[in-house]
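INFO  loader      accepted 1 record
INFO  loader      residues=658
INFO  predictor   begin
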Amino acid sequence: MDEELKGVLFPEQSGALTLLYPIKLDCNKPIVKVEVISESGNELFNHDIALWDTTRSISIYNQDGLLLTKSNSYKEKMSFYAIVDSGTEIPVSGQRVFDINREWFLHHLNGQEISQLESLLGRGFLWLDDELTDVRNPDSERNRNNELPFNIRQVTIYPDRDVIPRLGEAISFTISVPGQSCQVIKIIYGDKNITFNQNGFRYVTVPVAIRELKPLFKINILYNGREMYCLEKRPKIKWRGASLIKSKEKVVLTKQCIIEQKELINNPLQVHLPANWRQKENRQKLCLMEGYQILEEVKTSPQLLKNVGGFGAPLILKRPYNSQDRLVIAGEVQNRGMIREIYYDARLKKTLIKFKCAYELGEEHQVFIWDSTCTLREVPGNCIEQSKDNDSWYISFEISPDIAVMVAYRGLRVGTWWGERFFPTLLGSSRIVSPTAIAALLRWGRFPIVSSQLYSFVQRLLQTHPTDVIAAWILDEGLPEGLKHAMVSEGEKAALRYYLLDLRVGNMLNQLMISRYFTRPTKQTIDEIIKYLGWCRVKINDVSPLLYADLVRRIVRRIKADLGVIAARDMVHRLELEILQLKNPGKINEEREKLGELAAKEANVDYFFIKNGIVRRALDWIYQRPLGNWSRPNILAACSFPYLRKYLCVSLINAAYN
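INFO  predictor   done
INFO  writer      dumping tokens
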């Protein structure tokens, strides 16, 4: 920063900070950012100072720099300054003009020249107190417009009628005026002048990014070539998209944005449905989905989401089954846990870990660095210290963009941060030294494994080291000593299911489970096999009932070959009784049908669709037939529901045996 733009502040008894001497401001822009920095170099706060009102074509100031707001606040013998935008002509002679930045000009006027402007342009164009142009109170918008001439009130503004605009996207508007008596001089949205082109009695704006449900436009209109009026209009827009309600403020989500899992869990989401979707008659309900995982049926009122995973999938709006129509609400949902940000403080030569709230450092906390060589290192406890405000920690380590930092408490993950070059570094790794450890850390650290950034790396890991990845994801292997996985969430199950619903990976998983834990049936009793399959069901079924049913099918084939058909049938019946929590084998079919109806109700679909659209297609997968373009997403969506997973399990086991 230029030395002339710096100043020294000293505190007064009231607590205010006062400049020791005046400082020079950069006046080439209407908004000046002022930063207050401590002696140690840390930014205490910053503030934007508006030097002039960019929503007005002309602002008039006296010699002391005070804005004039009333028509009787000037005298003809005094001098004044006027800041005028480049699109407004000042039809008076004698004034001195200074170019501020080619968009705004400073005019030096006397009182007589201001009087001339008032008569030529109209009082409403110059003064803030005129009720036609008072924009400080939005509630009086309709009252102000009613005071305008009839022709001015007939001006309309509307968006492109062939497009259903999305919140946050740039859209163009058309302004229609009634005949030659009205000429649009200026269009303002927010604090920006909007460029427009005239086409007869219509004025078409350039695309404008709108982030409000009801945007307010201010239109300066020259009436009959001599009077200037300011009209306020809120165009009616049929939106599509969604916004988060945070502290009564609506934050618009875009299809490119990355949103934190906690944001969706803690803040209501307001969805704006496309009109053509609302009118479509379909038994399927529109749902909010994280990738293929169904979260909630969409509501017209704001809603909180649950079971959000944050493993990198997009947040979308669609009908879950046999539907191509979808609206991306947010491009990616991530889960960084408690960590807000991490950056290196060059002055202190330490890295700052900033948390989302006050978080006290304890003896059982650990900080890990995952570097570009895929090596995990723990930061020694004596190199970690708590900040005074309790919401940050300092570590004696310089971070770089190609590393990840993870914080743990008693072995459980607290938060994760990764640099912008961490994922490209993983992708560029030519040799993977410890695939089991890498897969385990990706899962433990809640990295976005289904995001576009990591998808190709995880796919390569599965193709080259499938058994290692499976051991880490299903059997909880590969974590460093002392670390442990949290309880598997629905979001985590969905992320793992996305990759494991692959024939090759499924075959490798079940081969691993059999080779590690299952010897020949002649050496194990049916009781031992049932016990083993019960343990497998806990590990596998909630992630993928298809994988579990396929494992049972493989073991049944072995039992048939070694112990006979009766022993195999007995084992399947006992397994079904255990899953359905029954004692009477005669009620298995009846209870299976009841479970199917309950699953259909839970998933809000037809029972016939579950039997024919889900179970039959899942059997194709078990019999080594690849899933079709519709079948795979349908099965992934169906596995969102616990009852449906259970029904799939018993149905596939029964069908696979028969």
